[in-house]
Every structure is written in structure tokens, then in C-alpha cells.
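hey so i finally got around to running the thing on that chain from the lab meeting. sorry it took forever, my laptop kept dying and i had to restart like 3 times. anyway pasting the input first so we r on the same page abt which one it is
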Amino acid sequence: MNNILFFLKPKAMCAYLYDDFTLRQALEKMEASDYAALPILNKRGEYRGTLTEGDLLWGLKNLCYMDIRQAEAHKIMTITRRKDNVPVRVTTSIQDLVERAAEQNFVPVVDDKDTFIGIVTRSSIIRYCQSQMFEKE
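ok and heres what got predicted. didnt touch it at all, straight out
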């Protein structure tokens, strides 16, 4: 195994946000996707960061004063994010991918032009390791 594409969940199968989404749009997309963190892309498809449920919660508290109607007036890029999931390139080694996945619940993957092409989830790596370690016993 020496190619991270084996683990890639392509962009077409990923839930993501655009950087011009409002807080309300992000809340609705996150609720519909049932994920606790989503990648943020610009309209060119470039990865811009990661938005978590916690980021949204604090953004609502700090920007909207708990009035959900005000969530339509704020763009998600105005929210302070705790941390962004650092992306990797397709040419990244499996060792570097696993190290990154140990710190992030998903790893965004970008091409040479920084265009988002998908994610690798921590769970897909764990399932692969499990199949390699335990099915041979």
C-alpha cells in the first residue's frame, strides 16, 4: 500500500461548505450531513479550512447573541475556527497520511493546484489496518 488514493473519498461523495455560506446555511448543511466537521471550499474548489460544530456554536454565541435570524447575516469565514484540518497532496506518503489522521478526524486531499479532490477519513485507515492485522489470524 503506497498510494493514498486507495483511501480517498472523492469530492462528489463528500459534504462540504463554501466560504461564502452564512452561519445558517452551514448549520443546515452540517445537520443534513450528520458530520461534526466539514471542509470549507471557495468557488474555485480550493480548500480554505475546516468548520466544526464547536466553531459554529461559538460563532452563534459571539456574532448572533443567540438570535438565529442573525445567522443569515454572517458568513462562515468570519467565525474564528479552533483549527483547520491540514490538507495533503495526492503524492503524500502513507506514513505522513497516517500521522496527519492521528491528529484529525479527516484529512483533506488537494491536487497540485490546491483544488480539493476529497478526504481521507481516520475510520477508513483504521478499517484497513484492522483488516490487515486481524483477518489473517
